[in-house]
Specification:
The structure is a single chain. The chain is mainly beta. It is 5% helix and 35% strand. It has helices at 214-219, 385-391, 449-455, 457-460, and strands at 22-24, 29-36, 41-50, 62-66, 74-83, 89-98, 101-111, 140-141, 152-156, 168-169, 183-185, 192-195, 198-201, 204-205, 221-223, 238-240, 250-252, 254-256, 263-264, 266-273, 280-288, 302-307, 314-315, 326-332, 344-348, 358-364, 369-373, 376-381, 413-421, 432-433, 438-439, 469-477. Strand 1 and strand 2 (29-36) form a beta hairpin. The longest helix has 7 residues, at 385-391. The two termini are 31 Å apart. InterPro entries: Beta-glucanase-like, BGBP_N, BGBP_N_sf, ConA-like_dom_sf, GH16_GRP_C, Glycosyl_Hydrlase_16. One of its GO terms (biological process) is innate immune response.
Length: 479
Amino acid sequence: MRWTLMLVFLGHTVAYTIPTVRFEHPTARGFRASIPDAPEVKLFAFHARLNEPFEQFEEGDYTGDITAPDANGQWTYSTNKPVLQNGTIIYYWVYVQHGSIGYLLKNKKHTVIRPKGWVAPKTTTLSPKTVAPCGQTLTTYNGGQSTCAGKLIFEDTFEQGSFAPKWQHEIRIPLDTESAEFVSYQSTPENSYIAAGRLVIVPSLVTMNADYNDERIRTGELILEGCTSIVRNPYECQRKAAHSTILPPVVSAKLNTKNYFRFRYGRVEIRAKLPKGDWIFPQLLLQPYENYYGYADYASGQMWIAHILANRMLVARDGKQIDGHRLRGGVLITNTAPGRFDFLRSNVKDDHFGDQFHVYGLVWTPEQILLTVDGFQYGTVRTNFRQHAQQHNLTQANLWNENVPLAPFDREFYISLGVGVGGIKDFPDHSQTGPAKSAKPWNNTSPKAEYFFYQNRNTWYRTWTEPELTIDYVRVYAL
């Protein structure tokens, strides 16, 4: 595995040694792994799997990025998922950022050994005298509620098998205020479901529904009952096909926590396996709760936790590789090219990001936004967005709080997960896909873009062998 932004320090005096990782098994399920705090430690990334050694730096099955020590002065990763029998071997590796230098501890293992007759301790209520102190944090949630530093403030491991109450479906047709994906987002059970403790979102051809055929797509009408249009735009709720306008040829799903959880400043961690297939892209996003600065042209911003163009092979006009081997994350403050991509950061590796699960992270502070994958920080966004936008004549700049350099990213945002297909923003014109270097079948400025995409379905649909986005867990921690 090759990480393009992995730091290597040669000829540098070693100023820090990763201490021995301490393992604890307080219950029959899960474990805790920790190292003691030390000055200048900024990140403890832990990666483990059971009874199977790592070959190199695979992501693992139990993994997390810890960005602050706990109240006991420990950098601690914890999980309650696996049931651990005596003799279970936990293979692991860790990455620690100390100052500006990264350190690795690899090829390690821990064997679970509990004393004979061990019984899981009963849960007891802490008396006021034993309650751990609550460290101050800038993180707030759900309308300004306060919390404690490092606290887990949102989690879904999808073990309950239900979307409610944490998630709601978007039901709408996306417009060109975003990417104008060639889909309708619906709550159909075949496009989003929970199975084996994981959320699965998968796009499908609308013609897989017996009620739709080629003629209806060209001449029929789609009315979305229960439409969730943010701006109450009727074009997000229904479409009449005529001439160059067709009904969305793909049905997909997009879910969010808007009615259950939103927050300002914190650390997001999503373990996911991204989709693979031509003209698909995953949406692991933070979206503005109230669109305080306006709705048009991303005036209130959007944060990308993880994004790929899921083609197995895709090359831009200039020869640059832009397929699923290139991960992108960052923020949007405009929908207009080329400024749309000014604050996206990327990381390229040998394997497609849809080949296996990875942990995608975003750390949002009042000063900067950090992007990570599997514990490695690959991007930083730190700028005065208002000044940048004014220099590029973006009208929304005058709406942003001039006293907060990171505005519009100074309000509460919610989590959004979905799968998009096609669209007129993300896939560049004249790009070529696959070993045969087939040309992208539509032009982003064409009024018939969606129609030409649909006409090419016999080609791109054959590549949809793994089109699903699979989410293992979503977590948000206070800073």
